[in-house]
Amino acid sequence: MDCGLLQAMAEEDEEINVYNEETFGMDLDTHGTTEVPNNGLLQFGELPSPPPPPPPPTPPLDPKPPSRHSSPSPPRQRPQYFPRAPPGQRGRGRGQRGGLGRGQMFEDPAVVRIVQGRPSIKVMHIYSLCEFRQLSSAARLHFDVFLVFKGLDSAIVDCGNAMYQNSFEDDMHSFTVPGSPINLRQPLTPRQHYNQVYTKMDQTCSDALKPIVNVLAKNSVDLLVSVVTNDTGGFMFPMNRPCPSTPQSLTPKMMQLRFGANSPRPSPFYSPSSNSVQHFRKPEGWDPYCNLMTAKEKEWITRLQMIQLQSEHPYLEDYYYQEYYRRIEAKMAEEELGIRGKREPPKLTTPYIMKSDSYTPVVHIEGSLGQVAVSTCYSPRRAISAVNAVQAQCPLEVIVFLRHLASRKCINLPDTDTDTHFHITGTKRHQTTALFIVLLEVEETERMKTTVLSEEEERRLMEKTQKKVEHIYSQLQHHDPLDSGGEFLPFLLVSKGKRLVARLLPFLKHDTALKILRIVTCNLPTLMSRDTEEALPVLYPSLRNVIGGLTFSQLIGLIKDLTFESLTTSESLTLACQNKFGLSLLYALLSQGEKLLSSGVPLEPSIGDFETWTDTIFQVAGQLSQCSLVEPLLLPSNLLTLFCRYLDKRTLHQLKSNME
Amino acid sequence: MNYVPGTASLIDDIDKKHLVLLRDGRTLIGYLRSIDQFANLVFHQTVERIHVGKKFGDIPRGIFIVRGENVVLLGEIDVDKPCDTLLQQVSIEEILEEQRLQQQAKQETEKVKMQVLKDRGLSIPKADNLDEY
């Protein structure tokens, strides 16, 4: 009796297996391996057209499958619960799969195929093994996770297959004997699951399924996940949904199932390779793989990049972006002059890090011989640089002397690219560049002064600045005896040098600045003639400021230099008239003189000053009225009043017309 | 939405179809799924496209991770634009064969050139070696 019962049970189970394999295709294929064909997804209503070869160990069951088909057995009736697709479509699904054998499907996971299947409702089984174990018994009985997809053009998201592959075997701890009572504490294979579900379902659970059926019948669009179970059923693959902001988080188990050999088959619909042939268009916003990169990750990367961008000296370190942004702002401001509510161009807001007032980048313990062992991002160890060490110890004069010797090739100095103080090259341009860098530091320090709070800091910064300024000045002054020309002149002949001097002048004391001014006026003809790049005007503003601080005698001295040096008076004056800078300088000088004279401050002139002054006025006036004048950089307002006092009406008139 | 206005960022290119040219000369087309700060790229449904003359062939490659330093250029592909009708798509075997022939022809001309130069006492180092220095 028992034997018979057992046998009957075994038979029944085998039948069920066969049924399952037929329906769901989990049978031995022509290739002899257990493979799941493309329609491993449940597609109810579709029967495999060729009856699959029966499993070898059950020859007596040969006649069974057909009989089961014909018998009103529960599994066969199941399909009727689900609305069928229009006949045309169903047939189409079948037919268009032609050419792709089942075996081909799984040779290469990366190979992508175009498959058309049932368009309307696709039902897929998804479940996560680990979740399954947690489900209650009742839930399991009713357990069926349906994902109802919106009917879309001919696409199958071929996702369900993965679960049927090997990974599940790994997870199997035990294999419940088919036919045994449902052991809910043990994990089940998909087959067993189906066994149980569908046998039970038809027997007892049809009521429970009705809600599902109704929903399906309505062809709902939304995701319908485990209607009767809890919602923890994990998703095996990215869903068909309009891209949400974050995908579900995956447990490691799910990750296993998701990637590698078990990865869900990519939808052939989206294959780039198919585009050229079929001109497929992906429906708007429908991409099951979208948002693999979460918003959090994107933000992380952005933040990382932003941190690298932040700095305290934006114009120094990120000049091009700052310039670009400034231009955009200017353009927008221009455009919206009339429009209210100026919209600002999107600002690059870097994450702001609070920095301490005194930030010592390199931690150095006084009196220690070595460096700190531990370095952090904010206090790195200083890289060893022998040259810097030399610089730190030697006074500036020694360095200058060493450089001098090096330029004469008496000694060799280490030549490092990074240390500009020791950059040894012969040309003035290179030297100027080196000095420029120092000047930039000076200017930066000046700017920083406004942000510095403590007096101590300010003093320290002042000292630093002074030192650097002196250094630059001495560099400019120091010249190679082989060079022709006096101090400063070689630098002034180069346009970069002119710019350097112009920017240095505000930092110099009056006497030193005066010295430079003298040199400029003395060598004005040379400067003007050799100024091919028209860089002289950059000197004008700074020099004007210096002139503004001149005393009368100093001024007279300068005028004398201007008019009597090198060339004859008239010639030099003519030249000056022809040159923008020269003319402007002349005007500035005259204007200063006029200012001094009319201000009423005691002038303390030296002997002969006034004569020189009046002589110059007449000379200049005569010259200006005769030759053609260029447009000066700035026309001081008190010039005409000056001339009024000294000249007669006629000359004055001529002068006036000429100057305008 | 550009998180970092006024700058260029790959974040806007995520989930879009791109064409990338690698330093070794390969052309990959795929959906850009993920990036990182080094511009390492993760491509999905990648296809390697080989061009020989007016023909091209696509080899499906699946998922590709490209190290950022190997990218020459990267550009988005407009899926709506009609495909180029000048180029003719052929099968993989055919395009590989064409490529092989092309390489062969190239090698032969190169050989001849080197021989000619050698006869004249000149030598030009090969470009692929230079890259290592």
UniProtKB/TrEMBL annotation, chain A:
GO terms for biological process: deadenylation-dependent decapping of nuclear-transcribed mRNA; P-body assembly. The gene is PATL1. Residues 48-64 have a biased composition (Pro residues). It is found in: Cytoplasm; Nucleus. Residues 363-601 form the mRNA decay factor PAT1 domain. Residues 78-89 have a biased composition (Low complexity). It comes from Dicentrarchus labrax (European seabass). Keywords: Cytoplasm, Nucleus, RNA-binding. GO terms for cellular component: nucleus; P-body. Belongs to the PAT1 family. This is Protein PAT1 homolog 1. Signal peptide: none annotated. The keyword Oxidoreductase does not apply.
Automatic annotation (TrEMBL), chain B:
GO terms for biological process: deadenylation-dependent decapping of nuclear-transcribed mRNA; mRNA processing; RNA splicing. It is found in: Cytoplasm; Cytoplasm, P-body. Residues 5-80 form the Sm domain. Keywords: Cytoplasm, mRNA processing, mRNA splicing, Phosphoprotein, Ribonucleoprotein, RNA-binding. CDD domains: LSm1. Its main location: cytoplasm. GO terms for molecular function: mRNA binding. Pfam families: LSM. One of its GO terms (cellular component) is Lsm1-7-Pat1 complex. InterPro entries: Lsm1, LSM_dom_sf, PTHR15588, Sm, Sm_dom_euk/arc. The keyword RNA-binding applies. The keyword Cytoplasm applies. Gene3D superfamilies: 2.30.30.100. Probably involved with other LSm subunits in the general process of degradation of mRNAs. Plays a role in the degradation of histone mRNAs, the only eukaryotic mRNAs that are not polyadenylated. Probably also part of an LSm subunits-containing complex involved in the general process of mRNA degradation. Interacts with SLBP; interaction with SLBP occurs when histone mRNA is being rapidly degraded during the S phase. LSm subunits form a heteromer with a donut shape. Belongs to the snRNP Sm proteins family. This is U6 snRNA-associated Sm-like protein LSm1. It comes from Labrus bergylta (ballan wrasse). The lineage of its organism: Eukaryota, Metazoa, Chordata, Craniata, Vertebrata.
